[in-house]
């Protein structure tokens, strides 16, 4: 069940991504208290919001290869996997969406120019 805003304003894609991530997180953790609050109010504690954002960035790190060796050629250094790019886009959307929903996140979980949180 998705917690919907009561004022029926259109939500941004980032907020929808954050809501999906919260739902997935609550399903994995089986935190009934937070799940009930989510269903009733559409809100979770900032602690849970940070766990959701951290999990999104951890997913990026899981598919991030180690830094190339100094001897690697330019093509090897520039190569980025589509899976990593998609996970990165999702992590950025989740962090932005959680902020739009009014959650305070640790600065290390916010997207930046060269974001590498995890």
Name the overall outline.
elongated
Number of helices: 5
Would you identify the regions where 5 or more consecutive residues have pLDDT less than 50? 113-118
Roughly how many Å apart are the termini? 28 Å
Mean pLDDT level? 82
Order of helices and strands: HHHHH
- Count of strand segments: 0
The total tally of domains equals 1
Compact summary:
This protein has 5 helices and no strands. It is mainly alpha-helical. The longest helix has 19 residues.
Your description of this structure?
The structure is a single chain. With 118 residues, the protein is mostly helical. The chain has one domain (13-109). The chain has 5 helices and no strands. Helix 1 (13-29) packs across helix 5 (82-100). The longest helix has 19 residues, at 82-100. The radius of gyration is 16 Å and the shape is elongated. The chain starts with 12 loop residues before the first helix and ends in an 18-residue tail after the last helix. The model is unreliable at 113-118 (pLDDT under 50).
Key terms:
5 helices; mainly alpha; disordered C terminus; 118 residues; 58% helix
List the helices and strands and how they pair.
Blueprint: H1 13-29, H2 32-41, H3 46-62, H4 74-78, H5 82-100
Helix pairs in contact: 1-3, 1-5, 3-5
């Amino acid at each position: 069940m998705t917690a919907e805003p009561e004022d029926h304003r259109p939500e941004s894609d980032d907020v929808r991504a954050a809501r999906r991530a919260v739902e997935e997180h609550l399903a994995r953790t089986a935190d009934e208290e937070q799940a009930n609050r989510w269903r009733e109010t559409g809100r979770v504690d900032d602690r849970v919001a940070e766990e959701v954002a951290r999990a999104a960035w951890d997913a990026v790190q899981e598919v991030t290869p180690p830094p190339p060796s100094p001897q690697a050629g330019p093509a090897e250094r520039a190569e980025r996997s589509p899976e990593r790019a998609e996970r990165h886009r999702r992590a950025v959307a989740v962090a932005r969406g959680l902020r739009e929903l009014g959650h305070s996140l640790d600065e290390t979980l916010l997207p930046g120019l060269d974001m590498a949180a995890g």
